[in-house]
């Protein structure tokens, strides 16, 4: 019997390995149909592990985003280009000054290969201090 190329993820080491493989596949300039099947399968296996282990649900969406950025070695300026948003908006998001729009959530979900609900959760924004003038 032929050994399976991919199996259900059973350890953090295997999870990291599959995430690295997936990242390598999606960064290729051209993807064949058989490679797309591998991408789809790895994505399903990774999503299943994430759902069962709830790893990212412990973090608020911005902490999760920062974690993904660190793991993928992506800077805020690069991510703003990927998401098609201004650097100022990206900065406000990362500093808890503005929330994630539905469009940004969809793009983050697609880019980082996670379900949208990972980013589509409530979290506290920092209140802008109101400048008061005295007369």
Task: Give an overview in words.
By secondary structure, this protein is mainly alpha-helical. It has two domains: 9-53, no CATH class; 57-122, lambda repressor-like DNA-binding domains (434 Repressor (Amino-terminal Domain)), CATH 1.10.260. The chain is built from six helices and no strands. It has helices at residues 12-26, 33-53, 61-71, 76-83, 87-94, 102-112. It is globular and about 65 Å long. The chain starts with 11 loop residues before the first helix and ends in a 23-residue tail after the last helix.
| Structure classification | mainly alpha
Number of helices: 6
How many strands in all? 0
End-to-end Cα distance = 85 Å
Average pLDDT works out at 84
Q: Give a quick account of the main beta sheet: strands, pairing sense, barrel closure.
A: none
Detail the topology: elements first, then pairings.
Blueprint: H1 12-26, H2 33-53, H3 61-71, H4 76-83, H5 87-94, H6 102-112
Helix pairs in contact: 1-2, 4-5
